[in-house]
Each structure stands twice: as structure tokens, then as C-alpha cells.
Write a structure and sequence with these properties.
The chain has a two-stranded antiparallel ribbon with strand order 1-2. A hairpin with a 2-residue loop joins strand 1 and strand 2 (about 45-50). It contains two helices and two strands. The longest helix is centred in the last third of the chain and has 28 residues, at about 50-80. It has one domain. The protein is of the alpha+beta class.
Length: about 80
């Protein structure tokens, strides 16, 4: 069965374009010492080979999340309370 059969034609094309771009980006990263790949049957698993880079990526992910969380808290504090 085709994996994207239930999706509309434009959606399938968009997914295939994203997969193609991801494949190209992984090819570039494989040529650097930052990413290693390991084949497991027909599956290829990629991992970050430098622990510091993994830490940096995790921090980069947490920063926007923290900003959004603090903004949400601030907005809740500034919201007017209902009058009794």
C-alpha cells in the first residue's frame, strides 16, 4: 500500500519535497565529522557524533520554549480578572 495514499495530491508532493530536502541535508552532514550514520538492514540511523553539539542543539530548542512559556505566564498575569 502506498504510504501517502489517503493524502491529497499537493500534500503528497509537499511531503516528497521535504523528504528530498532532508536527504540532501543529511548527505552534506555525513561528509562532516558531526554526524555518523549506521545501516541496520534497509534502515539508516543518523546520530550526532559530538556531545557538545548535541548539548548546543538541545539548548537551542529550549530557548524558544522558555520564551514562549514566560510570555504565556506574563499574558496570564496581565489579563484582567473578572469582576464579581
Amino acid at each position: 500500500m502506498e504510504p501517502f495514499k489517503t493524502l491529497g495530491h499537493p500534500t503528497r508532493i509537499h511531503i516528497l519535497e521535504l523528504l528530498s530536502n532532508l536527504s540532501q541535508q543529511l548527505a552534506v552532514l555525513r561528509r562532516t565529522p558531526l554526524v555518523v550514520s549506521q545501516r541496520n538492514g534497509s534502515e539508516v540511523v543518523y546520530s550526532v557524533s559530538v556531545p557538545e553539539l548535541r548539548d548546543l542543539l538541545l539548548a537551542a530548542r529550549r530557548i524558544p520554549s522558555g520564551i514562549i512559556a514566560s510570555r504565556t505566564e506574563l499574558e496570564a498575569e496581565l489579563r484582567p480578572t473578572p469582576q464579581a
